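agent> Task received from the user: take the single chain below, predict its 3D structure, and emit structure tokens. No templates, no multimer pairing.
agent> Plan: (1) validate residues, (2) run structure prediction, (3) serialize to tokens, (4) report one or two observations.
agent> Step 1 OK, no nonstandard residues flagged.
tool_call: predict_structure(input=
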Amino acid sequence: MDRGGLKRYRWEPDGAEMVLVPPGEFLMGSRGAEGDGDERPPHRVRIGRAFLMDCTEVTWERYRAFAAATGQALPDSPVEGSYGDYPVRGVSWDDAMAFARWVGKRLPSEAEWEYACRAGTSGPVPWGEADPRAHAWCSANSSGVPHPAARLAPNAWGFFDLLGNVHEWCQDAYEVDYYARAPRSDPLNEGRASSPRVLRGGSWATEPGRELRSAHRGYADPSRRITGSFGFRCAR
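)
tool_result: status=success, residues=236
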């Protein structure tokens, strides 16, 4: 299926629509005054092979099917409506990894996530000078709550909500100075089992111009669940 941007495919085990991202190179990290120290130095990164990534964050409906099939407890956070297509939230990195394995996927690497978020752009956000309220659920338009997936405009490659709505777990361990020594091809910081893990994208409470940027990096312990703000999407 191709509805603009890159080609899309339906992943049958969980019914998710996925975008096929081609290999390529991009400048990872911040190059402007808005960036934090852990986003530097900006550096060229090569994504050496194509990969699939979910168009949207994993939804309550998809996560509920996983929980029912595996006995996994549902997150201890409010459930919007009857699950539906709101992003699941309040999940740990360990929870996200378990879901990804169950559907035959994985979490995206931090480099893959930023490459997909930028979608060929080089500025702080993929929508340039456009109004962020048309592209991301954030403090400027969310009314203090998350929203169903794919209600705002996607980026140029067809991904929804990479910035805003819920923070998204990546596969990588977090280190503040990792960029200074990261490999330039397909970087993945595996770390130790107990290492903090990277979170990307900000949430519905994030202010535009601060954490709501393609390069911004967050982190938390892999077992930590924050009611309302930690979600994820999968790659393959």
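agent> Step 4: summary for the user.
Residues 133 and 227 are 24 Å apart (CA to CA).
agent> Done.
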